[in-house]
Model the fold of this input.
Amino acid sequence: MPPGGGLDEAVRAAAAGARRALRRTTGQLDVLARSGVVDAGAAGLCVVLDALAAVVTDEYPERYEVPARTEAQPARDEAPQTAPAAGTGPGYEVMYLLDAPDGAVPALRGTLDGLGDSLVVVGGDGLWNVHVHVDDAGAAIEAGLEAGRPYRIRVTYLHGAPGDGQHAPCVGRAVVAVTAADGLAALFEGHGARVVRREPGAVPPLAVLAEAILAAGDEVAVLPNEPEVLALAEAAAERARDTGARIAVVPTKASVQGLAALAVHDPLRRFGEDVIEMTRAAGATRFGHLEVAAGEAVTSVGLCRPGDVLGMIEGDVAVIGDRIADVALHVLDRMLSGGGELVTLIPGVHAPPDLAALLERRLRDARPDVEVGVYDGGQERLPLLIGVE
Done:
């Protein structure tokens, strides 16, 4: 019981604490995390405590909703009570958790109700579980963004399942690449990949990536091109595999690795062999980049201050300097110290105009055996991307 409080305060605190604990259950069990839901038993306990608080305090809300989906409502991995015939009804099941004020939910319900059917929006106290069947999965996600912050987004294609003879909406071999910059997007598209755009420093919505994979073909290699996108790409691939498609995520952690993988992509090979070759090419590509420090921080090579140029090699700070050109030369020397036959340089928007030419001259003089490729990446945040194969 809170210090100095009576029974009213105790039951209010218990009910509020239970709801806070309920939010955390999704991340405490793998099965709940995969389904994007909270624990059903914990949700039931919340109902009991809320009812107790209402009786003790004589405070009854005008509207009360179950704080999470209960077992009476179909979970993601459970078969629905009445499944629609294949090829009929909305094409996608969209589910997500939503942080949003209670007042935003009626408008969300109205929007989603106009988009599809099988609508369920349950929750309260700022946490909601959303489920709907729609043809436009992106619009369902956008509705959640207008209401609050959707997360643990899941999109499932409804008109097919493994073993039932159905396939993804599009057939054929394809590569899907994720990137944030215009120049990089043009590079990937020029090599035949389908591009999913993301905001700089962010990941693309799961629904968008899953839809892109489904639309690409029934044999798709996915290039995440950022460590932060890798887990999301695996989740999107898993959704697409529910349709019977063959999806492989090539674990590219940088755009230069993605370009190396795409360079050896051969749609005439068997899919498994093609993925192996792409993965091998990506793994054989060392990657680095330059960035400008936004604040003071302690790194593995010392203290950096705002405005310092950081030379990064495979995610670790290798050098701190004042000038982009000097740091770039140091990073190149370090990356080539272990050997290399091909160097890829991708200047960004804020790179000095003569940076690529300077680096090419240095490589011609010091390493005439190394081939150099220079491409305009158009990235905003990183002045230079470097790949060494």
The first helix runs from residue 7 to 25. The CA atoms of residues 2 and 41 lie 26 Å apart. Residues 67-86, 161-168 have pLDDT under 50 and may be disordered. The chain has four domains: 7-57, 92-157, 174-283, 286-388.
